[in-house]
Amino acid sequence: xxxxxxxxxxxxxxxxPTGPVTAVKDVSLEVKAGETVALVGESxxxxxxxxxxxxxxxxxxxxxxxxxxxxxxxxxxxxxxDIRALRGNDIGMVFQEPMTSLNPMxxxxxxxxxxxxxxxxxxxxxxxxxxxxxxxxxxxxxxERRIKSYxxxxxxxxxxxxxxAMAIACEPKLLIADEPTTALDVTVQAQILExxxxxxxxxxxxxxxxxxxxxxxxxxADRVCVMQHGDLVEQGPTRDVFANPSHDYTRMLLAAEPDGxxxxxxxxxxxxxDARDVHVRFTTKRHLFRPDExxxxxxxxxxxxxxxxxxxxVGESxxxxxTLGRALLRLLPSTGQIVFDEMxxxxxxxxxxxxxxxxxxxxxxxxxxxxxPRMTVGExxxxxxxxxxxxxxxxxxxxxxxxxxxxxxxxxxxxARYPHEFxxxxxxxIAIARALVLKPEFLLLDEPTSxxxxxxxxxxxxxxxxxxxxxxxxxxxxxHDLSVVRAMSDTVLVMKDGAVVEHGPSExxxxxxxxxxxxxxxxxxxxxxxA
Amino acid sequence: MTSTTxxxxxxHDDTPLPAGGPNPPAGPDKNTGESxxxxxxxxxxxxxxxxxxxxxxxxxxxxxxxxxxxxxxxxDEVDWxxxxxxxxxxxxxxxxxxANGRDILVRTLFGGQVSLSxxxxxxxxxxVIGVLYGAVAGYVGGRTDNLMMRFVDIMYSLPFMFLVIxxxxxxxxxxxxxxxxxxxxxxxxxxxxxxxxxxxLKRREFIEAAHALGVGxxxxxxxxxxxxxxxxxxxxxxxxxxxxxxxxxxLSFLGLGVQEPLTSWGVLISEGKDMMESAxxxxxxxxxxxxxxxxxxxxxxxxxxxxxDPKTR
Lengths: 531, 313
Prior knowledge:
The complex is a heterodimer. By secondary structure, chain A is α/β, with parallel strands linked by helices. Chain A is built from 20 helices and 20 strands. Chain A has a six-stranded mixed beta sheet, with helices on both faces. In chain A, strands 16-17-18-13-19-20 form a six-stranded mixed beta sheet, with helices on both faces. A four-stranded antiparallel beta sheet of chain A has the order 2-1-4-5, covered by helices on one side. In chain A, strand 9 and strand 10 form a beta hairpin. Chain B has one domain: Orthogonal Bundle (MetI-like fold). In chain B, helix 4 packs across helix 10 and helix 9 runs parallel beside helix 10. Chains A and B meet through strand 2, helix 10, helix 12, strand 16 and helix 13 of A and helix 1, helix 8 and helix 9 of B.
């Protein structure tokens, strides 16, 4: 059978003012009708550029060389008008972020109808019937009601289903899915993958599946193409590539799974943090004369952490795990008892808390948002020193900063640079250095690895473990990524809707979960091991 | 598992993301730890348009303040032999005279003194008040924010002319009153812009990280919030300066601003406009001065915004 989509020696070069940058170098691959080909690589590998090149959605300054053939047509020299007729009609596309790929001002019906009206002659009631049918196919409950909803009224998974409905509205032959599940919770991810599989079986869709997650690939793809720095380094049937990777990079990606478990801490180690019956309520003012609405994000949680321990908190988005973390550090108002090193935190006001802040530090999820863009790395790291150790001279501060950068394995010479010059993993190291420079005893890690590539995740996890061992740090580790939590934690807390559903030693939870919810989470996130 | 993972760590982790633009070329200045101010100055110097504008603006100010002393005519001196004469080299009125036989060049330079100082002072006042007020309102939030912004709303709803006339009645005629009146009105917009920016920035994680470090409120406003609002603020300042110059001319036109024989660019232009057909130089000369100044301010504003943004280096 001949290929539906064929890329022959495709190169994409961006002519930037600072000189040309080649994002994709001489990539050749093909996708046959009805098969799923996965394009795998980490951020910056050129996988998304490749997929946008197929749809010719690249910015003006991109130059494409080589050839793209789709269904017998050469796309590279088609006119803009002809390529627009292909987009959405013969080739559907699903993007990573379901919130931003839907227009927030339009109802669901209008979003999908727009595609139909562009490419088919369905109008009026017929178009509406087709929209309902599509929503039913992608598994949206109550399509008659949802058709009138705005995107913000849907959950992340439902939004992604709508995006998929738009992509398949005209029964395309090829679906390009660019990280379609990365922004979703693991259980939702499993559902979306299942849906894509169903649709593929029904329509004989070919899917070009772009992802950074090799474990997903094992589950969904017939063939795999691995990209690194714009080069296609390896391709072949999924089973062969996984069983017998020929390229170092593929091998590295496959191994990039944090493993091992944490050495346990003695049972009589002193309790560093003891929280009892913690509640966090958010109040929204609705109206001057109507009662305020309260939403309880954390409902009565007990948590005890001993020195040197790591407590993992897992749960899906919206389960209240980050809120709990912030409440523990008194970054959010809460009720209940929080005792840190035999000191009750709740009665203290912000000023009285300040001396304690250096002992209780935090590393946030988003390495792009948590560093002030107008301060140099040196200024960012030394800021806490200025607050807590005002007696230090400039030179002493500098020495501490250099030491902290060394601990997180960054070149101390980098301290004069600004955060935007660093990659995600490096920024996360800077954030860790900012916390470490104060020599804290307790570190709250709020999804510190979630925004990072797999291989970078592993290095950050290893760094955190090393630092814990070296300084006897105590961690509360919040994550939705169960494999990372498993590798890091002594005990695990599983949260759902603001409450703890299961709590116990890490290995017990992962090997013998008692609650259905935990079991579902574990199954969904270890797809490859179950399959 | 050992802590030395894969041979790829260094290579991958340290590679900047191509999507975020190419790695800036490594210059010798990279690691010297310059302060933001000095570095901004260095970047500004590379911007030719901005530097040319800065030079022209400096020259303009010098000419306006020194020039009148070098010319043989005084501000209100009437040349009885030259009423409304066109520019000429012979009679010494290089830019002509007005209907009262006064030298246009001298009057334009004096006008420049008034216009430039009003623009500078009023803009500076509105900048300082507006940025501080907006940042504090946005950062503190809640009831304080509500009260502060309602006060801004009340100020907005007061008619500007009413305010000026009120000030005139209470304090009498004075050029500083114009500064005060304009400054009192212009900071309102700035406060709203900065407050909006602050509200968006407040939710960012780096602010939360500063809290977690134990940094106090005033320091967070000064060190984290205000620097990050600079982009829109500078744009707005470059829009405010021409607005202030025009506002002053409007006041003067109504007889509430500068008084004869003192003058300003706005006054000269509005006078020149009436004589457009018989004495076009009366309009053209002050207009050119004003236009050049505003042009340069715009270029300088653009350059400053880029220079102060670390991402553009």
